[in-house]
Every structure is written in C-alpha cells, then in structure tokens.
Write a structure and sequence with these properties.
The radius of gyration is 26 Å and the shape is globular. It has a 5-stranded parallel β-sheet, sandwiched between helices. It has a 5-stranded parallel β-sheet with strand order 7-10-13-6-14. The chain has 20 helices and 16 strands. Strand 11 and strand 12 form a beta hairpin. The protein is an alpha/beta fold and 442 residues long.
Length: 442
C-alpha cells in the first residue's frame, strides 16, 4: 500500500484529503507542519503538502527525498509554480481541483520516483570490478536525493565523471551542471567567481555593477567543486553558510540571495586531517561529509585497466587517423603490473604517446612510458605498506623519476598540471633538482 504524508494546517482540509486518499486505497499519515522530524519519521512514499507551508520548496523537497512532493496552492501563481518545479517538486496543483486530478498527480509522482535512475548517465564510466560496481550502485541510490555529496579519491581517478553521473541521474538532469576547480583560480578572485560581486558603477549613472557568480548561475542545477580542500578559508565560510541557510551574499553587497543548487565536492586530500589542523572548517566538512563516495585508484581495479585502455585506444586511433590499432599481450600485462600514480588520466596520456609513436598496427610495451616502473612493483608495495598517503606516493614517484623526466613529463605522468606539481613540491618541501645541463642557445 502506498503511504501518503499529508501536511496541512487546516483541520478540515486535512481531513478531506485523508478521506479522499483512503477512499482510493492509500495509507495516510497526517501532520500540521513541515519539518525534518515530521517528514523523516513518517516514512511515506509521497508527501502532499500545502504550498504555504512549503514556501522554501527546496527545503521540503530535500527533507522528503527520495520521496516525491506534490504541493497544493491556495493562492496559486505562475512564478511560484515555476520555482517549485525548479526545486524538484513533482507537481503543483492550484485549488480548487478535482479529486481525480489529485489522485492522478500522486500516482504519476509515485510511479516516476519508483523508476530506476537513468543508467545511461554512467555510459562514460568503465568499471567492472566489484569496487566500481558498488560505487555505481551508491551513485544510483544517491542521485535522487538533494544531499550535498563529497567524492574522495586520488587525482585522475575520474571524480568529475562520478559527479556528472550523479547530476545526470538526478531530478536536476534537465538543468546545467557547472564545474569549478578550486586550485585553478587565484585566492583573491575565487570568491568573486563563486559568489559574484556588486560594486559602485560609473559616476555618470551611479548604478551599481553586478557580476553573477557560479553559484547563482547554477540555480536549479548542480555546482561541482573540484579539489575543495584547496578552497580558501573566507570562501569556505561563505559556502558553509549557503549549505546551512540556502542563501549567500555577493561580495560588496549586504543583500542575501536565495538559490537552489546542489553542491557536489571532490578532493584527493584528507579533509579530516585538514580539519584537525585548522586548514578546513569543521562545519563545512560536516555538511559535505554527511554523504561521501570513494573512487578507487586504478591500481586496485584489476582488469578494468585493460578495458579502459582498449576503449581509450579506439578513441585515440580515430583521433589520429590510425584505426585498427591493438594492444599486444605484453603491453596489457605491463599495464596490469604498473602502479598508475596518475590513474586514468595517466593511462590516457601514456596511450596517446604510444599511438603517436606507433609505426605498425600493434602497440607493444616498449611504446608505453611505464615499463621501467614495472620491475619495482614489489618494492613499491613494500613502501606502500609503510606509507599509504597520497603525499607519500607522490613523493616517492617524483624522487624516483625526476632525474630522467622533465617537469612537464613528470606532471603528465602524474596526470596533473605543472602548476599543481610545483605547488605540491612546495607543500612537501621537495625542491626541484637541476641535473640536466643545457647547451648554448642558438
């Protein structure tokens, strides 16, 4: 039996709704107010609420998720209806309405919510190992909620792909997803980029100049914040306030703005440790970490590495007009044995190099810039036992390869930018060794 939670302040209206639902075979739970405790304890399949009690539609949709919400409006308006639908409300019915119209709306909403998430959202993601299957199952169950989500994993593992899959399988899939890398913008500009700004206009008009930030631009959709661990303290405070209250202020303005945006964040860093050291706000970490996903590194995904390599090779062969290329058995074995510190991004870079250099129809192991490391697998495993941190792995890789690789090659092998490589050298106190001599410029 489908259970309906009816939230209506007026006793007479609430009784009429209960009788109508019971007449049509629904189980009914009644409440006179909309709050997290009421909705959470009801364990209903759908919520039917008076729109006046759900003025903050995004909040009731979030509290009820994954159960759908149908709102009944005593004083209906088109702007309110649009805003409610944008916030994820399943339907909006103006009073007075026919009883059969209400029942039909509820049945549609329940049927839609019971449909599985759109698995086509996962099409760019290749994953057959147990860890990836479990991850995609978690994405399926979390996609239809409105909760903020924290995605954890090493650089290059595909955290942004997971974020986009969450958005594409959610009720927000018809709106846009905006991605923002917290390491790619100078600290002085990052707040303006995210939250916008208001400044005095030219003296001739005195009209203020307003710049919309990405949070405002993502209204109705999803904002993906990559490398959230590098977000400056002042921006952390603003983001924590938005996640708590649903409002934000542009820089230079005292006016609060309300937007409906789902925030998905990702990082390769240990936020719990950063919180303990005072580098990351506890309240922001608590709100982001309520729901978290972990993307496994490529070295722990077994034969997924070969499946990803073959799919990538097909794409690159078309790009460089070298169709018909195949991986040799030795190349596939080398891929399985390699540690892949740069994960999928490093794999793609290695294959692109191999495709460019290949003069036949077969890519052998010697064309992949990884074979030198496969002889050190046992040693790397022993080191990983003593230090499993990302920083430790980064340190070992850089120190073990900086004599034979340039900074550009190191960064490419790790799947990061030269700027990120430099920043991590500074943070881990690994000065760049200049062992190569250059001839005179000509």
């Amino acid at each position: 039996m489908t259970r309906v939670l009816v939230i209506e302040q007026d006793d007479s209206s609430r009784r009429q709704l209960r009788e109508e639902f019971e007449r049509n075979g629904f189980g009914v739970v009644e409440a006179s107010r909309a709050d997290r405790v009421t909705i959470g304890s009801a364990q209903s399949d759908i919520v039917v609420a008076n729109a006046s009690l759900a003025a903050a539609s995004s909040h009731i949709a979030s509290m009820a998720a994954p159960a759908p919400v149908v709102l009944l409006a005593d004083s209906p308006s088109i702007p309110e209806a649009v805003e409610c639908m944008r916030c994820g409300v399943a339907d909006y019915l103006p009073r007075p309405f026919e009883a059969n119209a209400l029942i039909a709306a509820v049945e549609r909403a329940v049927a839609s919510a019971s449909m599985p998430a759109d698995r086509s959202a996962f099409s760019p993601i290749i994953g057959h190992c147990d860890e990836m299957r479990e991850l995609l199952d978690q994405v399926t169950s979390m996609a239809l909620t409105e909760s903020s989500i924290l995605i954890l994993g090493e650089s290059g593992t595909g955290k942004e792909l997971i974020a986009r899959a969450l958005h594409s399988a959610s009720r927000r899939r018809h709106a846009q997803v905006i991605a923002f890398n917290c390491t790619g913008i100078p600290e002085t500009l990052i707040e303006v980029e995210l939250f916008g700004s208001t400044s005095a206009g030219p003296p001739s008009t005195q009209d203020p100049t307003t710049r919309r930030g990405l949070l405002e631009a993502a209204h109705g959709g999803t904002l993906f914040l990559d490398e959230i661990g590098d977000l400056p303290a002042s921006a952390q405070a603003r983001l924590a306030r938005y996640l708590e209250e649903g409002t934000f202020r542009r820089l230079g303005s005292s006016q609060a703005h309300r937007v409906d945006v789902r925030v998905i964040a990702a990082t390769h860093r240990d936020l719990r440790q950063l919180t303990k050291s005072g580098q990351f706000r506890e309240d922001l970490f608590a709100r982001l970490n309520s729901v978290s996903l972990h993307v496994p590194p490529l070295r722990e995904r077994g034969d997924d590495v070969v499946a990803i390599a073959q799919t990538t090779l097909e794409r690159l062969a078309g790009k460089f007009n070298k169709r018909g290329l195949a991986l040799s058995a030795a190349a596939m074995e080398a891929m399985r044995r390699y540690r892949w510190p740069g994960n999928v991004r490093e794999l793609e870079n290695a294959l692109e190099r191999a495709v460019i250099l290949c003069q036949s129809t077969t890519i052998d192991a010697d064309l992949l810039p990884i074979h030198a490391d496969t002889t050190h697998t046992a040693h790397a495993d022993a080191q990983r036992e003593s230090s499993s941190s990302l920083e430790g792995y980064f340190l070992r890789f850089v120190l073990g390869n900086e004599d034979r690789l340039t900074e550009t090659e190191l960064a490419k092998a790790l799947g990061i930018s030269r700027k990120s490589l430099w920043e991590r050298r500074q943070r881990l106190n690994i000065p760049r060794r200049r062992t190569r001599t250059r001839g005179p410029r000509r």
